[in-house]
Write a structure and sequence with these properties.
- The complex is a heterodimer of chains A (about 110) and B (about 110).
- In chain A, a hairpin with a 2-residue loop joins strand 5 and strand 6.
- Chain A is built from no helices and eleven strands.
- Helices cover about 0% and strands about 55% of the residues of chain A.
- Chain B has about 110 residues and is mainly β.
- In chain B, strands 2, 5, 6, 10, 11 and 12 form a six-stranded mixed sheet that branches. Chain B has a four-stranded antiparallel sheet with strand order 3-9-8-7, with no helix packed on it. A two-stranded antiparallel ribbon of chain B has the order 1-4.
- In chain B, a hairpin with a 6-residue loop joins strand 10 and strand 11.
- The chains are: A mainly beta (about 110), B mainly beta (about 110).
């Protein structure tokens, strides 16, 4: 375990469902991130939070909605997803911006 | 904008041998950090090694070492005495001291053969 925990590990959802991905870090870090990893594509940064404020939103469709209620927790709320949204979603944290990340194990999302 | 390029999509090496993975990057920043991450089939992205650009000395972590050539913007990873557990996707990554995002290369799939 790296200190960054993601749940669930696997998620299958229909296009009309609403679900949430959860990320929790116990490292005392101040920044948290969501990345999308699709097959044969580079990792795509989705959102960056620093001290619970969103500092970057990388042109992500509105069907993905992040929430950071405190510096230890990060959520990704999903609704009306498309099959092309199927991917591995990785959460990461870092002590501060512009520092190396610690990653969680990811949530494998399949949209059917 | 920063870019990170890994020109070797796949590599293989025999157990106990040495292998070098290549990475080049492009940036206008003078100070930054470079990383190598390993992602085995378990999906966990694990930090292998970290290099600060203002340090000329190459970073080393046990069997892993880097060859950092700042002028050439090159950051290769050398794995000595390769082990079966080293089989994984390896990502080179960059972050500038003024930035908020870690930029990744496309990855190199390394297979260690018995």
């Amino acid at each position: 375990e790296t200190g960054v925990t993601q749940t669930p590990r696997h998620l299958v959802m229909g296009m009309t469902n609403k679900k949430s991905l959860k990320c929790e870090q116990h490292l005392g870090h101040n920044a948290m991130y969501w990345y999308k990893q699709s097959a044969k594509k580079p990792l795509e940064l989705m959102f960056v939070y620093s001290l619970e404020e969103r500092v970057e939103n990388n042109s992500v469709p509105s069907r993905f909605s992040p929430e950071c209620p405190n510096s230890s927790h990060l959520f990704l709320h999903l609704h009306t997803l498309q099959p092309e949204d199927s991917a591995l979603y990785l959460c990461a944290s870092s002590p501060r911006l512009n520092y190396g990340y610690t990653f969680g194990s990811g949530t494998r999302l399949t949209v059917v | 904008a920063q870019t990170v390029t890994q020109s070797q999509p796949e590599m293989s090496v025999q157990e106990a041998e040495t292998v070098t993975l290549s990475c080049t990057y492009d940036t206008s920043e003078s100070n930054y950090y470079l990383f190598w991450y390993k992602q085995p089939p378990s999906r966990q992205m694990i930090l292998v090694i970290r290099q600060e650009a203002y340090k000329q000395q190459n970073a080393t972590e046990n069997r892993f070492s880097v060859n950092f050539q700042k002028a050439a913007k090159s950051f290769s990873l050398k794995i000595s005495d390769s082990q079966l557990g080293d089989t994984a996707m390896y990502f080179c990554a960059f972050i500038g001291t003024s930035g908020s995002r870690l930029t990744f290369g496309e990855g190199t799939q390394l297979t260690v053969n018995p």
